[in-house]
Amino acid sequence: MLVKKFLHQPSARNRMVRERLTEPLHLNLASLLVAVFGGVRSRIAFDLVQRPHYAYGLLEAADQARKAGLSAFTAVEFGVAAGEGLINMCRVAQLITAETGVAVQVAGFDSGEGMPPAQDFRDHPEQFGLGDFPMDRARLENKLPANCRLVLGDVSKTVPEFLKSNLTPERPLGFAAFDLDYYTSTKHALRLLSDADAANYLFLPVLYFDDIVLPQYSDWAGESLAINEFNAEHELRKIQQFRFLRSRRLLKNARWIDQIFILHLFDHPEVRETHAQRRMQNVYLNEMGS
Ligand SMILES: C[S@@+](CC[C@H](N)C(=O)[O-])C[C@H]1O[C@@H](n2cnc3c(N)ncnc32)[C@H](O)[C@@H]1O
């Protein structure tokens, strides 16, 4: 049933042809084995989870949280619409909790009423407009698992409110996905990354930006403009694309790799001088006769 649905989605079909089938044959064969016998980690490594970008970000955050001795972290999706992405995030989060023992609290931010009006060219009004992407709130709420909740209202209001009590050092922000389409909405949402004390974030929170991939997206509008302004406005917090992620992935053609960013918190408690002296080995010093 899911396979049939997948094959009827042109974007999914195109991506399958462009991204996966152009990977080396041995990796595609290995993928088949992993699809049948693999565990959560190997399925994520082979992009065999729906929305692999969510799976990657959640697993990275869970591993970081565990290393830091934490039993939970917070993940958010900005822009929920019909809620397919949010439900997917919650389900993947449950798999990752089973794998790592780290609980994930998921929050989905949305107006609940579709897109607000675009303000100016920076919101790409040629592409998005008032009322796009409405939500069937009652049906969606009914489907959400216990680890997930909706935060409804305009993000300019809900983000400051959320920050008052939802991010804590015991449940820091580990992963955030941005899919609000507009520059103005993303600018408000990015306050989640600047307006709380650094202890309320994992050391390297993983970010995903959905709206940076089309030819009409540039640094002068949309999400990229909001990111650049964030970096200009915050001396100790910077958002940067994870430039070398591709070399760490098995399947190199996936587009989502370019959509993963990292929040660098130079005011984080982890940024301090406490480590023991480090040494480098020199194998030549042990050579016979020297
Ligand atoms: C493209 S849709 C999200 C799709 C969803 N992430 C998915 O993959 O299924 C964008 C959503 O952003 C929401 N949105 C845009 N600006 C907003 C704002 N200022 N406050 C709250 N929600 C907003 C809209 O209601 C819309 O549902």
Give the helices and strands, then pairings:
Layout: H1 2-7, H2 10-20, H3 25-37, H4 40-45, H5 52-67, E1 72-78, H6 84-100, E2 103-110, H7 137-143, E3 148-152, H8 155-163, E4 173-178, H9 183-189, E5 201-209, H10 222-233, E6 237-241, H11 245-248, E7 260-265
Parallel strand pairs: 1-2, 1-4, 2-3, 4-5
Antiparallel strand pairs: 5-7, 6-7
Helix pairs in contact: 5-6, 9-10
Residues 77, 79-81, 84-85, 110-111, 114-116, 133, 154-155, 179-182, 185 line the site of S-adenosylmethionine (SAM).
CATH superfamily of the largest domain: Vaccinia Virus protein VP39
Count every beta strand, where a strand is a DSSP E run of 2 or more residues.
7
The end-to-end distance, rounded to whole angstroms, is 68 Å
The coarse silhouette is globular
Number of helices: 11
Return the CATH class of the largest domain.
Alpha Beta
Gyration radius, in Å = 20 Å
CATH architecture descriptor of the largest domain? 3-Layer(aba) Sandwich
Count of individual domains: 2
Main sheet makeup? 7 strands, mixed
According to CATH, the fold-level topology of the largest domain is: Rossmann fold
Helix content: 25-40%
Defining traits:
290 residues; alpha/beta; Rossmann fold; 2 domains; 11 helices; globular; binds S-adenosylmethionine
Structural write-up:
- This protein has 290 residues and is α/β, with parallel strands linked by helices.
- The protein has two domains: 1-37, no CATH class; 52-286, Rossmann fold, CATH 3.40.50.150.
- Helices cover 37% and strands 16% of the residues.
- It contains eleven helices and seven strands.
- A seven-stranded mixed beta sheet has the order 3-2-1-4-5-7-6.
- Helix 7 links the parallel strand 2 (103-110) and strand 3 (148-152).
- Helix 5 runs parallel beside helix 6 (84-100) and helix 9 (183-189) packs parallel to helix 10 (222-233).
- Residues 77, 79-81, 84-85, 110-111, 114-116, 133, 154-155, 179-182, 185 line the site of S-adenosylmethionine (SAM).
